[in-house]
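To make this tangible, this section ends with a sequence with its C-alpha cells:
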Amino acid sequence: MDASHVLRRPVFCTVVPPHLLDKIAQSGTARRADAAQRTLEHDAMLRTRRRVTAVRALATPPAEPAGDDPRRTVYDAQHRTRLPGKKVRGEGDAATGDATVNRAYAGLGATYDLFLKAYGRRSIDGSGLALDASVHYGEDYNNAFWDGQQMVFGDGDGDLFVDFTVSVDVIGHELTHGVTQYTANLQYHGQSGALNESMSDVFGSLIKQYSLDQTAEQADWLIGAGLLGPNVSGVALRSMKAPGTAYDDDELGKDPQPATMDGYVNTSRDNGGVHINSGIPNHAFYLAATELGGKAWERTGRIWYDTLTGGELAPDADFADFARLSTATAVSLYGEGGAEHRALQKAWSTVGLG
C-alpha cells in the first residue's frame, strides 16, 4: 500500500496501559500514587490533543529518494515536556556519554534493520521516513509513546519503572504503531485497537529476537522485560507465551490479559481494553511461531507483515477478520495444506478463533 496516497489519522499510543497506572494511582505510598496520577493526567491531555489536532492529511514522501540507511535523530527533552528538545545525536554520530541516548539510537536502528532486511520496508512509512526520538521526557514520567510523528521516552520513577529505553522491544513496539498508521491504519478501539496493540507487541518482540539472533524457542516472548523496577513482583509488561502471567504485584495488580476468547474482556476503559485483549492475537502469533520453529520473523512474521500491509485488512477489522486474512496469506505465500497453513489454523483455533 502506497502511504503517499492514503489518508491517515495518527493515534497516541503508550506502552504502559491506563489500567496499570490506574492501579498504581491508588497506592498507599504517596510518591508512587502521585507519579502514576501525573503520568495518567499527562497522557490524557496528550490523547485529547491528538484527537483534536489529528486531521486526516496526505502523508508526504521524503524530498530525496529513500536509501537503505536510517536517518536517526535523538533529542534530550531535559525533563521538560516540550518536544523535541535539544538535539544530542544524529545519524552516524559517535556514541555520547548518555546511555539513554545511545540505547534510543540503537533501538531506532534495530527497528529499521528488521523491517528493511526481513521485509524490504524502508523505515516505518516505507519511504525512508526519518526516525526521531526524545529521551528524558518529563519528571518521573512512567511511560513511552508514539505521538504520530516521533518516539518519546520517560525515565521512569526508578521505583516501579526504570528508564523506558532499556527494552528494545518497547522501542520497536512504539515505532510499529507508525507502521500500522501508514498501512492498515487500524482504528484504536475495540478489537481493531487490540489488533493495533498486538501488531506492535509482535514486531517489538521480533525486533528483539532479530537483534539477538534468537530462534522462536530461544526467545522469552516478553514485552518490556527489564522495565519493571526493583520493587515489583513481575518480569515484564506482557507475555505473549503466557498472557496473564507477566506480573502479580501489590501495587500493579495482576496482569489481566487473556490468552483465548474465553477470557475476552468487555470494558469501556482503555478504548475498549486494547491493551488487555491484545493478549489473544499475541498468543496466536506465539503458538504459530513456535509450531513452525526457527527464526520467527521469517515465516510467521512474514505472514503477519503481509497481512498488515497487503491492503485487505480494513481499519475496523476484528480478530476473526485478521485470523481469516492471515490464514489466507499463509496459503498464498506457502501453499494450502503446508506447515504454515496448518500452524495458523491450529493457533487461531487454540485461542478460540478457528
Remarks:
- Confidence is low (pLDDT under 50) at residues 1-7, 52-63.
